């Protein structure tokens, strides 16, 4: 073997060893959930990648032998290609934690998070010839953390008795933000009889749609929500355009741009109906396990919020009834006080009239029938004396019609003593006499 051939063999050994390492890495990462890609050259050509890498960026882009920027042009504006250039130039690895990246463009774009490392690949002489990308997608962990944070915030809102509409609206927006694909959330509240559903929250559905379904009946075949409320179980409609449950609402859903609706009943701890929790989609869709789990979690949260609201409402109603009862009691006590005061005033007036009768009786003792009324008291009365009034104590006095009638009304034992009139009944039946009473105003 010549020296030249020996030198070529020695030069080839690192290359062969490097290929072997890359082969082993492909084996190690082949079925891993970690993403792996091996890039070569300053253009970062994708030499190889594992299925998890292509699953992350989209199976429709599963190609090798092309620069990464051609495969994923969206990375340029997010700084990732510049980082690769830096690692390739300096030979220094770079590590990122929970780094946000938007994968894809247009309708297929999705937000993702990764822990990753850019590790330089070197040849036998130590020169950088490429970069290995190793990472783990943390999107679900990130979303789970976000979910827990939002869920905790909702529970705190419920604990501090925030308005139900505020809690439900916040919950709907939270789910819409967390969902990996576009979803529109609606919460309907059951009326006390459980026969109808009223609007609770639906921040992303059009107003005309919310108004149209506000008050829909619960029953089998009444859309997804009416049916779920009636059956007390989830109802999954994957294609509104063909499902018979939506026969009466298909045109309405079409105008709102809705193509699928998954509804979960919201039940109280005793099994009674509180409402429904619905997830709408703009394309026909069947739920995955994560969708159903999300629905269950937030249906339970909604149940807690609604039950707390009902309890608080019942407490406020009871307090309002108690306050109304207290107000009525105060009103009755005041009325009683007024009646008591009026009775005391009448008693005082009666005592005063009795004193007048006694005084008049003494003054008229020597005069059988005086000319002027003797019942006018200190103010006096110049009206002619026409009626004789007496009481059970034997006192008697003459007075005008007004003062005599005042004595009859206020002095319990007073009576008309005119023998020719035949007593009080006969007197009251004498119309001319009663007409005369109105002619002599009370003094």
From TrEMBL:
Transmembrane segments: none annotated. Residues 150-316 form the GAF domain. Keywords: Coiled coil. Pfam families: GAF_2, PAS_4. InterPro entries: GAF, GAF-like_dom_sf, PAS-like_dom_sf, PAS_4. Residues 308-360 form a coiled coil. SMART domains: GAF (SM00065). It comes from the Bacteria. This is GAF domain-containing protein. It comes from Saccharothrix xinjiangensis.
